[in-house]
Design brief:
By secondary structure, this protein is α/β, with parallel strands linked by helices. It contains six helices and eight strands.
């Protein structure tokens, strides 16, 4: 900015974005001061500096405002984890699936892990069966975002997340279904 620009000559743009041309840094700073503004180095292309005359305070304010707006639009995905074992009972599996449904409908991504202990490590196909059963319980609202992978020969992990199309289809079906009172 202003005298801190390390180049003797700059390509100058005025505060409206119109091209003035290549001028010395001293002339550019004088033009900026005539308009009660600052000379700001915007870009360097092929070792050719481009400077613009603008109100630096307003420039910083606008930049911060844009960053804040971009941050608000950004969606944050929370990762949740559900742990299973290869020999989990059906009732326990249903309970875990119910909890996973809650997480998914809140918009969270769920990591479903099957933990192998001792000799179970030799029977990874049992873990794959459990994951298939588990996914069958939540597949009406979820999609697989990352297929099952074996981690450290101890965990079989799969990532599932909300499938907006499936959830919208279910909600539309429920909304369009006539109630029993209307049928009578």
């Amino acid at each position: 900015m202003n005298n801190a620009i390390p180049y003797d000559k700059v390509f100058l743009l005025d505060n409206n974005g119109e091209k003035i041309g290549v001028v010395t840094k001293k002339v550019a700073i004088e033009k900026a001061r005539e308009e009660n503004m600052d000379l700001v180095l915007i870009d360097i292309k092929n070792n050719k500096p481009i400077a613009k005359i603008l109100d630096y305070g307003k420039f910083k304010y606008d930049k911060k405002k844009k960053q804040k707006a971009a941050k608000e639009k950004q969606s944050v995905t929370i990762n949740r984890e559900i742990r299973l074992t290869p020999l989990i009972g059906d009732h326990d599996l249903n309970t875990k699936a119910k909890k996973a449904r809650e997480f998914i409908l809140e918009g969270n991504r769920v990591k479903v892990s099957v933990k192998f202990r001792g000799r179970e490590r030799a029977r990874t196909e049992l873990g794959e069966e459990i994951l298939t059963k588990f996914y069958a319980l939540v597949e009406d609202i979820a999609k697989i975002s990352k297929e099952a992978t074996l981690v450290n020969e101890k965990f079989l992990d799969i990532y599932i997340e909300k499938d907006k199309r499936k959830v919208d289809a279910i909600s539309n079906k429920l909304n369009n279904e006539p109630s029993e009172e209307q049928g009578e």
